[in-house]
Amino acid sequence: MRANRSIPAATVIPVLTYPDVRAAVAWLSAAFGFVEQVRIGENHRAQLRFGDGAVIIADMRGDRHLPRPGEVTHAVMVRVDDARAHCEQARAHGAGILMEPTDFEYGERQYKAEDLAGHQWTFSETLADVAPEEWGGTSVNAG
Predict the structure, then answer these.
(1) Are 97 and 56 within one domain?
(2) CA angle in degrees (0–180, nearest 5) for 22-10-50
(3) Which of 88, 97, 95 is nearest to 116 (CA)?
(4) Which of 31, 79, 111, 112 has the fewest Cβ atoms within 10 angstroms?
(5) Structure pTM?
(6) Residue 73: what pLDDT?
(7) What domain count does the chain have?
């Protein structure tokens, strides 16, 4: 894949809609630890980085709308080093904590949060390397 400084280097890049792009960038940076990389217009789009991952924040226009309360159409998963500390940082910035940090049999500690626009996020800390077959999963095309 060719490099291009005008788009995040991540292979998969979610695009999330917010009513105020600048406010979303500030909040996502403070609450979840994202870092802004590219700004497109004052309130049109922004590209944010977290580790080797990325997300694009887009303004509301045309067919782009916020999530509706009570409906979940998507969630973004982000790997973090310390789910408990990350959860406390998010809570301190007003994130709605939907699930407290919980340890799962597949070797992850995860918590779920809702951001200022209603998008749902799962933050996951790896506790152990566990084969999917140990908890009921199936490895497919493992390489």
Answers:
(1) no
(2) 50
(3) 95
(4) 79
(5) 0.90
(6) 85
(7) 2
Same domain, 45 and 82: no
Same domain, yes or no, for 87 and 43?
no
pLDDT of residue 142: 67
Output the 3-class SS for 28-86. HHHHHCCEEEEEECCCCEEEEEECCEEEEEEECCCCCCCCCCCCCCCEEEEECCCHHHH
Contacts of 55 (CB under 8 A, 6+ apart): 13, 14, 15, 16, 28, 34, 47, 48, 76
Q: What tens digit of pLDDT does each residue of 100-116 get?
A: 999 999 999 999 999 99
Per residue in 29-64, pLDDT tens? 999 999 999 999 988 999 999 999 999 999 999 898
Q: DSSP class of residue 18?
A: E
Among residues 10, 37, 60, which one ends one of the domains? 60
In a domain, 35, yes or no: yes
Domain range for 105: 72-136
Asked if residue 67 belongs to a domain, the reply is no
Q: Is there a domain that residue 141 lies in?
A: no
CA Rg, the chain, in Å?
A: 16
CA–CA dist 52, 54 (Å, integer) = 7
